[in-house]
Amino acid sequence: MALSDFDLVLFGGGGDLSMRKLIPALYARHRAGDLPPSAQIVCVGRHPWSDAEFVEELNRNAKPNIGEKVFQQEAWNAFCASVRYVSLDATNADSYDPLVDLLRNDAGLTRVFYLAVSPTLFASICHNLHRRGLATEHSRVVLEKPLGRDLASAKQINKEVSQVFKESQIFRIDHYLGKEAVQNLLALRFGNVLFEPLWRREWISDVQITIAEELGVGNRMGYYETSGALRDMLQNHLLQLLCITAMEPPLSVGADAVRDEKLKVLHSLKPFTPTTLSRNVVRGQYRAGHVEGKPVPAYRQEKGADPDSNTETFVAVRAEIDTWRWAGVPFYLRTGKRMADQLAEIVVRFKPIPHSIFAQSTNSFVPNCLVIRLQPDDGLQLNLMAKTPGDGMRLKPVELELDFAETFKTPRMDAYERLLLDVLRGHLTLFMRADELEAAWEWVEPILRYWEQEGNEPIPYTSGSWGPAAASALIGRDGLQWREEVLPE
């Protein structure tokens, strides 16, 4: 589907997210021929750079984040020629004059305002765009996370932004929903007859959703110290993955059809009480250790860290969904930094066989499970039991694997590439609705309040491990184990 002409205004255009993800994604789509030749990209920041000086910044900070297979100097030069830079104070409407002058005065032109800035600036920017007549009926606004610190602040953001833009113009982005494997989860569930009869409590033992990072906080300490793993990862990425895994079949892939079903899942999550919180939530913080054979410091020893910080870098949660389909099936959500490996995956583990006819010839049975890998490589893996070659009837776990890169030879889009194209096309399916955002915060907020009231410190775990031992105990109380703990040697 060809894109119509547009002006895209990137607030925070000189920031880390823009240089690492957004500019490379826009360049990749330019290189692929998706962007109209007359499209205009305007990067906004506070530094008093000229267009030429900003292109130098792009060469220094954005260009290294473009893969060698995608980069082509001539295409990069043409892309940079379409980029403009504007310096302004986002909180001062009078300083928007250069932006007003630069944007084309075409009432039917698509305008996208991408707010890759602190959420404290969302309201000011939206109101200033309105005051200067830049927010038209053909405008769209993209909001980057974190979308609030709690339910009250999320509601306030929604209220302020909705005073300028209609809900159909607001794109609350979660880049995990743009990943190829997440799209394939929808295809797997609703494009095949094979799994749907099994996708329920009668056949599924548990579901594990893990987002693990080997990296520490890096240069994000200022943000992370006020956020932590729960706000940074669980409230958005993990809950969105849970919703897509657990939702009922939507009427279509239309935006509201899909988001209605995700909302039902969020409303069906069993609320926490002080008693269930103490048993079903694990909070951790990494200490010194080794990652990939190299020593790394503790979180409290990282540059800019509070030496007495109680910010969590790990969280594991046992969740339950009170619906006919999922009653009694535990969902385990886990995320952490400085972990043993970098991966993001959804593991749907099926129940054990009811009776073994191979009891005397097979040492142990590994339950069948479906693994949807999101990173580092997208793919699907189905674990089965099979007979080993040779005499006798001995069974061994085997894997049926689909590697998307190997199966589909065409270049794959990065998550931000796909989501940016959806914004430009006006497709809202992969973006959160206001009620979704608030429902997610409503479920998560009791965890935050519990931690604040109890004042408990996070459990230390060694960098390069899979987190605190309490996380293994959390799942172990149900007689289960995390996937890496049951993988055969």
Describe the structure.
The chain starts with 5 loop residues before the first strand and ends with a helix. The chain has two domains: 6-144, NAD(P)-binding Rossmann-like Domain (Rossmann fold); 177-414 and 434-486, Dihydrodipicolinate Reductase, domain 2, CATH 3.30.360. Strands 16-15-14-13-7-12-11-8-17 form a nine-stranded mixed β-sheet, with helices on both faces. By secondary structure, the protein is an alpha/beta fold. The mean pLDDT is 92. Helices cover 34% and strands 21% of the residues. The protein is built from 16 helices and 17 strands. The protein has helices at 16-31, 51-62, 73-81, 97-102, 122-131, 151-162, 180-190, 221-224, 228-246, 255-268, 274-280, 404-407, 415-425, 434-454, 469-476, 483-486, and strands at 6-11, 40-45, 83-87, 110-115, 139-143, 170-172, 204-212, 281-287, 289-291, 294-296, 314-320, 330-336, 343-350, 369-375, 379-387, 395-403, 459-462. Strand 15 and strand 16 (395-403) form a beta hairpin. NADP(+) binds at residues 46, 145. One of its GO terms (cellular component) is cytosol. Pfam families: G6PD_C, G6PD_N.
Name the features.
Dihydrodipicolinate Reductase, domain 2; 17 strands; 6-stranded parallel sheet; Rossmann fold; alpha/beta
